[in-house]
TrEMBL record:
<protein>
    <recommendedName>
        <fullName>alanine transaminase</fullName>
        <ecNumber>2.6.1.2</ecNumber>
    </recommendedName>
</protein>
<dbReference type="InterPro" id="IPR015421">
    <property type="entry name" value="PyrdxlP-dep_Trfase_major"/>
</dbReference>
<comment type="similarity">
    <text>Belongs to the class-I pyridoxal-phosphate-dependent aminotransferase family.</text>
</comment>
<dbReference type="GO" id="GO:0004021">
    <property type="term" value="F:L-alanine:2-oxoglutarate aminotransferase activity"/>
</dbReference>
<dbReference type="GO" id="GO:0030170">
    <property type="term" value="F:pyridoxal phosphate binding"/>
</dbReference>
<dbReference type="InterPro" id="IPR051926">
    <property type="entry name" value="Ala_Aminotransferase"/>
</dbReference>
<dbReference type="InterPro" id="IPR004839">
    <property type="entry name" value="Aminotransferase_I/II_large"/>
</dbReference>
<feature type="domain" description="Aminotransferase class I/classII large">
    <location>
        <begin position="36"/>
        <end position="397"/>
    </location>
</feature>
<keyword id="KW-0032">Aminotransferase</keyword>
<keyword id="KW-0808">Transferase</keyword>
<keyword id="KW-0663">Pyridoxal phosphate</keyword>
<dbReference type="Pfam" id="PF00155">
    <property type="entry name" value="Aminotran_1_2"/>
</dbReference>
<dbReference type="InterPro" id="IPR015424">
    <property type="entry name" value="PyrdxlP-dep_Trfase"/>
</dbReference>
<dbReference type="InterPro" id="IPR015422">
    <property type="entry name" value="PyrdxlP-dep_Trfase_small"/>
</dbReference>
Length: 416
């Protein structure tokens, strides 16, 4: 007996997440055939030999007997106090434990906060390129993503005048990703102040994804948004995944700052939604205080001679040596976002290129258009591999691009 096909939510057709999508599925098929791939599609430190710092591991193992019960829906009180103290030291206004929400990674809190904020048809201003979870969470919570351009010719920084021109009566929030994924841009203070002014004048919520806040190169600054926002309602997102190399622990947080009266309803809505999912992962919360107030283990990795700094150097130098590539050097985060230029860029299709690179050179990258940009000549790589491996990756990329030039830059049809 046959059964009717089960229909799924229609809006899922609008959601893109190529970081773990079709190309990643094809990669698993090739690996099942015995192929060994260099997978640069996910910023997953543990997959490249990084470990969460030992003092964080000890903080969990020393309290493992206390991790069986549910905790408060917003998180362990001591963990929330540690986050609040960290933000108070930065100058975040009204940073108290009551205004801290701990979640199963920042991803869950992005979804939860947009669910608390949006009514059907409400608009969220998002950067283009963006981390695609932001677009997906907006769509799946019945909102509408509206993109402001972050162009390579402007160092991937947005124009505040263009942001304000997109504001309509349906606009509810402005999202910033700083340092940016996928571009690595770090936003100057003056730019952030202008965005705060837009939010203040239009009554918008600021949402600042700061998961890479301490991953910076060559003296690039990081300016947290909440201290600049003052009384303007602001949600600041952070976590253990990237700076502390503990992705699998799924520990993230959001701090709601600004005028408590203006954000009281949002606070209650987030608390309700947090209660409906009972609580976040408890064991990882015991590492938060050690992470935020203990030894700084990320700065040495980002300093000259450190592994991340040298990986970034390998990418920057490889691109500079190529006649087919261009790059705005990342100031922060764990990624580079090169563009294909010149003869190799004629008729270029980023998805077909990514597939050809994987099929012929055993390298998996993410097409740039996956990050909600209108152009098709970029791709993203992570900076997590060893520097020598990244140099080898760009040698393989160079071979694919050179073949395209010699073939008259005709895009090869996808075969998978």
């Amino acid at each position: 007996m046959s059964h009717p096909t089960l229909a799924t939510r229609a809006r899922l057709s609008e959601v893109r997440y190529e970081i773990r999508g079709e190309l990643a599925r094809r990669a698993r098929e090739l690996e099942a055939q015995g192929r060994e791939l260099i997978k640069l599609n996910i910023g997953n430190p543990g997959a490249f030999g990084f470990r969460a710092p030992e003092h964080l591991q000890r903080a969990i193992t020393g309290r493992i007997a206390d991790t069986d019960p549910y905790t408060h829906q917003q998180g362990l009180p001591a963990a929330r106090e540690a986050i609040a103290a960290f933000h108070r030291a930065r100058g975040t206004p009204n940073a108290t434990p009551e205004r801290v929400f701990i979640g199963n990674g920042v991803s869950e809190l992005i979804d939860l906060s947009l669910r608390a904020l949006l009514n059907p048809g409400d608009e969220v201003l998002l950067p283009s390129p963006d981390y695609p979870l932001w677009s997906a969470a907006t769509i799946l919570n019945d909102g509408r993503p509206v993109y402001y351009a972050c162009r390579p010719e402007n160092g991937f920084l947005p124009d505040p005048d263009e942001i304000e021109a997109l504001v309509t009566p349906r606009t509810r929030a402005i999202v910033l990703i700083n340092p940016n994924n996928p571009t690595g841009a770090a936003y100057p203070r003056e730019l952030l102040e202008r965005v705060v002014d837009i939010a203040a004048r239009h009554g918008l919520l600021l949402m600042s994804d700061e998961i890479y806040d301490s991953i910076l190169y060559d003296g690039a600054p990081f300016h947290p948004l909440a201290p600049l926002a003052g009384d303007v309602p602001c949600l600041s997102f952070g976590g253990l995944s990237k700076v502390h190399r503990a992705c699998g622990w799924r520990v993230g947080w959001a701090v709601l700052s600004g005028d408590p009266l203006a954000s009281g309803e949002l606070h209650h809505a987030m608390d309700l939604l947090g209660a409906l999912r009972l609580c976040a992962n408890v064991p990882g919360q015991f590492a938060i205080e050690a992470a935020l107030h203990g030894e700084d283990t990320i700065a040495p990795l980002c300093a000259p001679g450190g592994r991340l700094h040298e990986a970034r150097r390998a990418v920057v130098e490889s691109v500079a040596a190529s006649e087919h590539l261009d790059l705005v050097a990342p100031a922060g985060a764990l990624y580079a976002f090169p563009s294909v230029v010149g003869a190799a860029g004629v008729g270029f299709d980023d998805h077909a290129f990514a597939l050809e690179l994987m099929e012929t050179e055993d390298v998996l990258v993410v097409p740039g258009s996956s990050f909600n940009v209108p152009w098709r000549n970029h791709f993203r790589v992570t900076l997590l591999p060893e520097p020598d491996q990244l140099r080898e990756v760009f040698a393989r990329i160079g071979r694919v691009l050179q073949r395209r030039v010699e073939a008259g830059a005709k895009p090869r049809a996808a075969t998978a």
